[in-house]
Each structure stands twice: as structure tokens, then as C-alpha cells.
Design goal:
The structure holds two protein chains of two kinds.
Chain A: E1 12-17, E2 23-24, E3 37-42, E4 44-47, E5 52-55, E6 58-64, E7 69-74, E8 80-84, E9 89-94, E10 97-104, E11 112-116, E12 120-124, E13 130-137, E14 140-145, E15 155-159, E16 162-167, E17 177-180, E18 200-203, E19 211-218, E20 221-227, E21 236-241, E22 248-254, E23 264-267, E24 270-275, E25 278-284, E26 291-294, H1 301-307, E27 313-317, E28 322-326, E29 338-343, E30 348-353, E31 358-364, E32 367-372, E33 375-380, E34 385-386, E35 396-397, E36 399-404, E37 407-423, E38 429-434, E39 437-441, E40 474-487, E41 490-494, E42 499-509
Parallel strand pairs in A: 2-3
Antiparallel strand pairs in A: 1-42, 3-36, 4-5, 5-42, 6-33, 7-8, 8-9, 9-10, 11-12, 12-13, 13-14, 15-16, 16-17, 17-18, 19-20, 20-21, 21-22, 23-24, 24-25, 25-26, 27-28, 28-29, 29-30, 31-32, 32-33, 34-35, 36-41, 37-40, 37-42, 38-39, 38-41
Chain B: H1 3-13, E1 22-23, E2 32-33, H2 34-55, E3 61-67, E4 70-71, E5 76-79, E6 85-88, E7 91-94, E8 102-109, H3 127-144, H4 150-155, H5 160-164
Parallel strand pairs in B: 1-2
Antiparallel strand pairs in B: 3-8, 4-7, 5-8, 6-7
Helix pairs in contact in B: 1-3, 2-3
Classes of the chains: A mainly beta, B alpha+beta.
Chain lengths: ~500, ~170
């Protein structure tokens, strides 16, 4: 820490920020948030590459759609399926590119999918249940209706060797019935009372006046979310345990619920779901009830809840241990391009801002893809710019920002020196801003590891820099005079590949 | 050294090159202004000159022709040597000389104010004079932000007791 002798005596103070891994915190006054928490964290997230807050990877154009995407589903082991907005045409993406698929989606609703057998994927989008086969049409991908299946399927799942869907109750029209296919055969759905292995059905929550929003597995059970129209926070969560004929349908939680199959994700032994109050989770426990809810969004719930809409979507970016939340769909204003990022491994909240509103995100192996506008892009840590094509030319550096808590004292605060440690690339500019003073944070970009498989290859479009810095870090130190009643440090970054490690301020109360 | 250069030097001495501590146009209770730095420079000029006059710095000597019963020059500090004159309210009466007759005198003069010059004008200070004036102005600026400047003053040979004895310091 730079010091200037003993010029302020006992009033001198070192304000040190050892890291920024507290993430966003809106739940405390801005002058009281913890030293490692942020009030604004745009386009940064925890990265295991540097163990600190790092600018997100750049968007690398990977495939082009004729029109915008309107929903999608992962095909385990084989990329993902995309629906074209408006026309329901189907496209399949693998990291090599986008290919057309014979057939169209049968509905416009939220998409849910489940793997079936070796090759097929069952898909529900509000219309008849469909099957996607990567080589179903002379070796080419095919999406086709399953004739024997129910005509209106809101969600699909696979359990005990049967395909299951959420469909309408024949009596009162509510979507509160689970129908199961015959064991091992997703084409046959009729029930034969003398044969247990034929199709079955189960009504969930008789007379509770709610519809099923989503169905998702948790541990060995199936979790069923029901709620009144548009009010998930008045819903009931059910649990289906056991197999036919020994099914057990149990209530698990009350006054909570979610919006659609697109706002629920299972990660390991937890189910994360979006609700009107933010992000909640269900976990298996050994206590009575065996499932309990939790609220991992304590630090951002007040801000997140304000933006939540019934079109909210939740994606699992498994390659990064992140959940991505898009609270509103098709929002034209800036807010619509903001994705709330929750690093569930560490409980860190940040935000990503993309040049356009994203529609769908999924991992393929350890690569993360997102559809934005008419393109499919990989989010790649080795790229320091967003290379949007053809919407935006030329490639634009990623703009990231971090705003820290306010340094507030009884009298005025005087900042007389600043110190920062960081990792950067030669093409990235960054600065620490304190009122009218900016301390530039630039790195000469010395290669910190020998070129090898762990380093990004030299390429005209990438910065020549290592992915894993082995030793050393860049620092910046500067003296200044910044005085005010409240001082808010901000870090502005232009370009990717930048990690903010630590920050220190020498201050005095004057 | 021009006026702009001496201000830049003062900013360097207080580590405020980006003008966040003393901005170009200051607002009360926000960052202080360049005008304030000029004020400190003028104070430094005054303090330096008076100290120099007390020490008998011959580079401050000036000659002038003054008639009895007229006002002494603006930059007059004190006569060099013994002069048979009585000075009251800036007006000198020379004994034995009728009013209106010009008398040649030698006196210690204050260096010109920094604010008497424009931004790009060359200041009439020697290198060592400019250095000391800038250092003293920097001390005033740091003192405004409640830095302890006793060490800085001692380095200029203006320790605690001596500094207080001087009207400009």
C-alpha cells in the first residue's frame, strides 16, 4: 500500500478490498455492503481461470438462423434443438453449425424435453407430444408428432420407462393431469385395466383450482408445480414418489411456485425455480417432508423480483456452474438484454449484458452457447470481443463495469493514493474511477505461461495471452487528491480477458 | 517558466495531475479550483519576498526615483540601508528635501504576483525562486486537505516557529 509518511497521523486509513467475490448485494445500504461486494457488476463473473472476478467470455459467432429463435431444448449428447419464432420450424445446432430439421414444432408454448431411449428426444411445446430423432429421416434429423399421444402437452418427462406429459383433465379442462405412456413405448398411451404396463394417468391436486406449470425430477421423485393463473406465489408444490401402482402423491410446499417449464432447472440434487419473488430452490433433506425450499437470491431478490414476468426463463450454464435468468421476454429497453447470472458453486450474483436480447442458452460438453437475434454464439473465455455477425460490425470490445460500495465517513473523505492488482491483455483498457480521477490499469501482456494447450492460440481475432496465469500479476499504483462527502470507486473495463483481483485506497477523514 | 507551467508544477508536487483535487473551475465543498492554487502562489510570492528582504537577498533590490510626499511603489518592502525618510500610510517624506523633487532610492521589492500574468506569459522568476515559490504553494494546498506539512516546511528552512513569524507563511 502506498503511504505518504505520516501525513494524516491517526486519521489515515487503508481501505483494502481483498477480492470482489461477494458479488452483487442490493440488500444493504450502499455504504454498508461488505468490502468484497458490489453494487453494480455488469459483464463480470467469477472465473476459475483466475480465481477472481473476470470479464465474461466474448461471443463467437457459431451458426446462423434465417429468423430469430423462439425457444429451444438441449438434446443430450447431440447439441440442441431450436424453434424459429413465428413459424415453428425446427433447427438443430451442434458445434459444427446449424442444420435444418424436417418437421415443425406442434406448439408455441414454453418448450420442455426429455431424452427417450438411445437416440430420441421427446418434445412438448403446448401441442401434441413430438419426438425428435437425429437420424430419423434418411439419416437426417426429424421432428414428428406422436399420433397416439395427448393433443395438448404442456410438459414432458420420462419416469420408470414411461413417457409422461402434463395435459388437460377431460372433466373440467384444467391442466392438472399427468398421463403416462405404456412402459417402453412412447407411441402407445391407451389404458388396459388388466395390464399394468399400459398407459396410465394421474390427477394431481383434485379440486385445488390450479394448473400444472412444470414438472421436474428431484432425487428419486418428480416435483410438480401447480399455481393459479399468473400467481405462482400462491401455488402448491407436489411430489410424486414411487412407481405405478404404488404411486404416492404428497404436498411439499405451499405459497410458492413457478411460471413454466422454462423457469425450472435441476442441478444435481437441487431444483432451482423462478417465482414472483425471485429465485428459489428445492432440495432433498432428511427432515420431515423430505424436501425443503430455500432462497439463494437473498442479496438481489428486491431488484430481481421487480423485473420478473410470467415469461421469465432460467437456463443452466453447466459449463460455468452458473444459472442464467432472463426475467422478461422480448423487452426492447436495455433491461431486456440483461441476464442475471448466479454462480451456484459460490453463491455469487452478477449480470451479463449482451448486444441484443438472448433467447436460449445451453452447454454442449464444456462449451456454452447462447442464441441472440439470428445467430448462435459461443461464449468463449479466450475471446476479448463480441463478434456479432451479421448484426453488428465490426467486433465490439466487451464493456464491463463494477461499482463498489460508497466510502462514507463522518466528515469528508480524502483519497490520496490507489493501488490495484489485476490480470489483463494488451488490447484491453481498464481504469479505476474516483470522482474526477482515473487510474489506468494496463498490462504489458507478458505471456505468463509457456505456450501450450492451456494457452489461447495466436489468432488474428484473439489476444495473444494465457488462459491460466501461472505467476505474477499486473499492478497499478497512483497518488491523487480526491475529496468529497462520499466517494464511490468504480472500475470500467473495455475489452475482455481482464480480471480484477484486489484494490486498495489510502484514505483520511478530513 | 510560464504561469501555466508553474501551476502544473504545483499540481505535480501535490499529486493532482488529473485535477481531481483542485479542478479548473472549483465548487465550494466539492473539489477546490485552479483559482485557489493561484491564490496560494501569490501568498508564496509574498512570503518568499519578505523572507528574502529580511535575509538581505540582493536579487530583490530595485532602484526607483521617488519624490517627497508621494506614494512609494506597490512592491516596496523596505529600504536598503538607512534613508532619512518617514513613511506613513505608504507616503514618504524625505527630510530636508522639498516636495516634488525626485530622490533616487534603493529598496527591497516584492517579486511580481503570479496573478499579474496571463496563462502563457513568462514569469520573471529565477529558477531557484520559482522552485521555492511552487513548493510553498504546494504546502498551502496540502494543508488545505489537512496533511501535516511540518516536515515540508522544515525542508524549506521554514520550521514551525519561523513560519509563524512571517505574515505570508
Amino acid at each position: 500500500m502506498p503511504i505518504r509518511g505520516d501525513k494524516h497521523g491517526e486519521r489515515a486509513e487503508r481501505v483494502f478490498y481483498p477480492d470482489f467475490l461477494g458479488g452483487l448485494d442490493f440488500a444493504a445500504p450502499v455504504e454498508s455492503i461488505a468490502r468484497n461486494e458490489l453494487r453494480e457488476a455488469v459483464n463480470v463473473a467469477f472465473s476459475p481461470l483466475t480465481g477472481s472476478m473476470r470479464v465474461r467470455g466474448g461471443l463467437v459467432w457459431s451458426g446462423r438462423l434465417p429468423f430469430e429463435a423462439g425457444g429451444g431444448a438441449s438434446v443430450p449428447g447431440r447439441g440442441f434443438l431450436l424453434r424459429e419464432k413465428g413459424t415453428r420450424r425446427a433447427f438443430r445446432f451442434r458445434w459444427g453449425g446449424i442444420g435444418t430439421t424436417r418437421g415443425t414444432f406442434s406448439g408455441d408454448g414454453p418448450i420442455s424435453a426429455a431424452a427417450w431411449g438411445d437416440e430420441a428426444l421427446l418434445v412438448a411445446s403446448g401441442g401434441r407430444l413430438q419426438k425428435f430423432e437425429p437420424h430419423g429421416y434418411s439419416g437426417l434429423p426429424k421432428l414428428s408428432d406422436i399420433g397416439g399421444a395427448p393433443a395438448e402437452c404442456r410438459a414432458v418427462f420420462v419416469r420408470d420407462g414411461r413417457a409422461g406429459v402434463v395435459t388437460r383433465n377431460d372433466d373440467d379442462g384444467h391442466f392438472d393431469t399427468l398421463r403416462f405412456s405404456a412402459v417402453g413405448d412412447c407411441e402407445s398411451w391407451d389404458n388396459d385395466p388388466n395390464d399394468d404396463s399400459t398407459g396410465q394417468f394421474l390427477e394431481v391436486g383434485y379440486k385445488d383450482g390450479m394448473d400444472i406449470d412444470a414438472v421436474i425430477p428431484l432425487s428419486r421423485d418428480l416435483i410438480i408445480f401447480k399455481s393459479p393463473e399468473g400467481e405462482p406465489d400462491k401455488g402448491i408444490v407436489w411430489r410424486l414418489a414411487g412407481s405405478y401402482p404404488d404411486w404416492q402423491l404428497l404436498e411439499v410446499a405451499h405459497n410458492t411456485g413457478t411460471f413454466s417449464p422454462e423457469s425450472v432447472r435441476t442441478v444435481g440434487s437441487d431444483v432451482y425455480y423462478l417465482t414472483t419473488a425471485g429465485l428459489a430452490s428445492l432440495s432433498g433433506v432428511t427432515a420431515y417432508g423430505e424436501v425443503r425450499t430455500a432462497w439463494p437470491d437473498r442479496k438481489v431478490a428486491n431488484a430481481l423480483a421487480q423485473r420478473m414476468t410470467p415469461n421469465a426463463r432460467l437456463w443452466n450454464a453447466a459449463a460455468k456452474e452458473q444459472l442464467w435468468i432472463l426475467p422478461g421476454r422480448d423487452a426492447e429497453e436495455l433491461e431486456g438484454k440483461i441476464v442475471w447470472v448466479f454462480d451456484y458453486g459460490r453463491g455469487i450474483w452478477t449480470q451479463f449484458e449482451f448486444p441484443l436480447v438472448p433467447d436460449f442458452a445451453a452447454s454442449i460438453e464444456n462449451m456454452l452457447f447462447v442464441t441472440i437475434g439470428k445467430g448462435v454464439y459461443q461464449v468463449h473465455d479466450g475471446y476479448i470481443r463480441d463478434e456479432l455477425y451479421p448484426e453488428v460490425e465490426p467486433p465490439a470490445p466487451i464493456r464491463a463495469k463494477m461499482r463498489l460500495g460508497v466510502v462514507l465517513r463522518g466528515l469528508q473523505t480524502l483519497i490520496k493514493a490507489a493501488f490495484a492488482s489485476f490480470v489483463s491483455t494488451p488490447s484491453t483498457t481498464a481504469g479505476l474511477k474516483l470522482k474526477g480521477f482515473t487510474m489506468p490499469m494496463r498490462s504489458a501482456g507478458i505471456n505468463l505461461c509457456a505456450a501450450g494447450p492451456l494457452c489461447a492460440a495466436t489468432d488474428a481475432t484473439k489476444a495473444d495471452w494465457p488462459l491460466f496465469p501461472n505467476n505474477g500479476v499486473a499492478t497499478a499504483r497512483q497518488r491523487c487528491i480526491v475529496r468529497g462527502w462520499a466517494v464511490t470507486p468504480e472500475i470500467e473495463i473495455n475489452g475482455g480477458g481482464f480480471s480484477m483481483n484486489t484494490l486498495g485506497l489510502e484514505a483520511a477523514e478530513v | 517558466m510560464t504561469r501555466a507551467e508553474i501551476i502544473r508544477l504545483v499540481r505535480q508536487l501535490i499529486s493532482d495531475e488529473q485535477e481531481s483535487g483542485f479542478t479548473d473551475g472549483g465548487i465550494l465543498e466539492e473539489a477546490e479550483g485552479t483559482g485557489e492554487l493561484l491564490n496560494y502562489l501569490d501568498r508564496a510570492v509574498d512570503s518568499y519576498s519578505r523572507r528574502g528582504a529580511d535575509d538581505g537577498d540582493i536579487s530583490l533590490l530595485k532602484k526607483a526615483s521617488v519624490a517627497s510626499l508621494t506614494t512609494l511603489p506597490d512592491d516596496f518592502i523596505k529600504f536598503a540601508g538607512n534613508v532619512p525618510a518617514e513613511v506613513t500610510g505608504g507616503v514618504a517624506t524625505f527630510y530636508g528635501h522639498p516636495a516634488g523633487k525626485a530622490i533616487p532610492i534603493r529598496y527591497f521589492a516584492r517579486l511580481p504576483w503570479v496573478t499579474a500574468y496571463g496563462d502563457g506569459d513568462e514569469l520573471p522568476y529565477r529558477h531557484d525562486q520559482a522552485m521555492t515559490i511552487a513548493a510553498l504553494a504546494a504546502i498551502y494546498a496540502l494543508n488545505k486537505h489537512e496533511f501535516s506539512v511540518s516536515q515540508d516546511l522544515m525542508l524549506l528552512g521554514m520550521g514551525a516557529g519561523e513560519a509563524n513569524a512571517n505574515p505570508g507563511g
